Amino acid sequence: MLTDGHLFGQIKDMETKQLLLDTPLLEPEIEFSLANTIEVGVLASDKLAQCLDADLAAELKILVDEGERAWDEFFKANLRLAMWVAKKEANRYESPLEDVFQEACLGLADAIQRWDHRRGLRFSTFAVPWIRYRASSAALTKGGQNELSANRIRSQINGSSSRVDVVAVSPDLICQLGISTPPEDPFADTSPWWFIELADIHQQVLALRYGIEINGVPTKRHTIAEVAEKLRVSYSQVRRLEAAALRRTKELISQVA
Hints:
Helices cover about 65% and strands about 0% of the residues. It is mainly alpha-helical. It has a two-stranded antiparallel sheet with strand order 1-2.
């Protein structure tokens, strides 16, 4: 697996980076094959750490090396996707593209580690929220903007004169809800239309718990205890409200599925 230093070394080499960005996205069958090889390599690495048999260790080492090569190929083939997201976030917050791209690459690495190819979802569809989550955080920091407070979240949501336009949600929430972009369009934005259909209190809880970006201004994720304190309700009430909000969201999504 690539370390942060190795990763940053790659993307700071502009000639190499351009070469990688020109690499086309992988076909589904190649994605799945590489993912299998990566998974086998990870399992082999775990066994190798405890292996005392020299012959078996040699075989495991071969699988580990194949897994690392597959990971590297998978990562390089998706750098163009990371750049696509990074450009959008850098432009939105007027931040240095190189810095945002570095974080987008870390988001890409997160997505590779978390993607379950057996679920049938294209990697690019799964990866976009993870890449955007890293890239938007970096762009926000480099752009010098401040975190959205809980009071401002409520005013954005409840204000009659301002339109709520949810630009992005956290990858954890997207994965939990099973939201996906069309497989034929790997660069499409996730479209959290369902958010504005929720009750105000459900919007508030999800915004705080999952770091939903409202009207282009992100907020950090909060623990249940932090949400309870900010909304001045009990811990158990926050849990019930979050469960109800997720349940209602899934109902809305299922109606158009």
